[in-house]
Amino acid sequence: MYFEAIFSPADQKEYKSEAKDFIGKKLAVKEGWIIEDGPYKGQQCYYAPNTTIGRIPQSDLQELKSVPYARWNQLYSNIESENK
Prior knowledge:
Layout: E1 2-7, E2 26-34, E3 44-47, E4 56-57, E5 61-66, H1 69-82
């Protein structure tokens, strides 16, 4: 499934410094796995392809919703063009 969400981390120190460029932005994300350890244990995590954010716990995403592939691909293309 394809999702969009606004990246809004509770603790920015949990992420690489490059992740700050995505804070407050709507991202194309994909469902990952259940986090097995650490402070986010038991939460579903997501990831934004072709970014350096890494795993994103569901609690760090706002307005998370399933979207059609065409919408997801549009968001993904915007992220990809910003990274060039």
